[in-house]
Design brief:
Elements (H helix, E strand, L loop, with lengths): L2 H25 L13 H23 L6 H4 L1 H22 L8 H9 L11 E4 L2 E5 L3 H22 L8 H25 L2 E5 L8
Parallel strand pairs: 2-3
Antiparallel strand pairs: 1-2
Helix pairs in contact: 1-4, 1-6, 2-4, 2-7, 4-7, 5-7
């Protein structure tokens, strides 16, 4: 194995570990929103989603411009930046629906990463007819989910952005993926907050 390949593998492992830590830090602090409840929350939420997707695409594409091995070093700041944009978008969508009080760490984690691994949340967020039941999750479950996503997210990125190591072409691909990913998060958040939400504080999924 070449020195370049070894360095790339090491960088990927470091990114996975740090990614799990970044996800945990992100969902434990739900951002405040400057939005208010509106008469047509779906239209407003779609506009918020489009604006966030454009910002995410520009940010991710710009950070992916460095060529070759250097592009791996930008993965973590790129993703953290996109996730922060997405977290703010989720908070704003919740506010547009008048459901800021229903947004906690479980709901944030679900909205941000349900499209990455729906199976991970099967015991936390449950669709029951025209409402969602959200079960309180232990910190242990949140930590486990963050670590799991820290491994799964890089695999998705590698599968969808294999051109990352190619200058310019890679940046365009990364930007396009960030746009798509953000629209998926917006879609989940709109679907979630458009329904009645019941909080089940008696439950305590721990990921075991």
């Amino acid at each position: 194995m070449s020195k370049y390949a070894i360095a790339t593998v090491a960088a990927q492992e470091d990114v996975r570990q740090k990614m799990g830590d970044a996800i945990l830090s992100l969902v434990l602090r739900v951002p405040a929103s400057g939005e208010g409840e509106v008469a047509q929350p779906k239209a407003r939420s779609r506009a918020l989603g489009r604006a966030a997707a454009r910002q995410a695409s520009l940010m991710a594409g710009s950070l992916a411009l460095p060529p070759g091995f250097l592009s791996w070093l930008t993965i973590l700041p790129e993703l953290v930046g996109v996730w922060r944009l997405q977290a703010q978008m989720v908070s704003d969508i919740a506010a547009a629906y008048g459901k800021t009080a229903a947004l906690g760490r479980e709901q944030m984690l679900y909205c941000l990463f349900k499209h990455v691994s729906a199976q991970l949340f099967r015991d936390v967020v449950v669709r029951v007819g025209e409402r969602y039941v959200v079960k309180a999750a232990s910190l242990g479950f949140i930590q486990l989910a963050a670590r799991t996503l820290g491994v799964k997210v890089p695999k998705n990125i590698l599968g969808k952005s294999v051109s990352r190591l190619v200058p310019l072409i890679g940046a365009v691909g990364v930007g396009a993926y960030a746009y798509f990913d953000t629209t998926q998060v917006a879609k989940t958040a709109i679907e979630f907050f458009s329904k009645d939400i019941d909080l089940d504080m008696s439950a305590n999924p721990d990921g075991s």
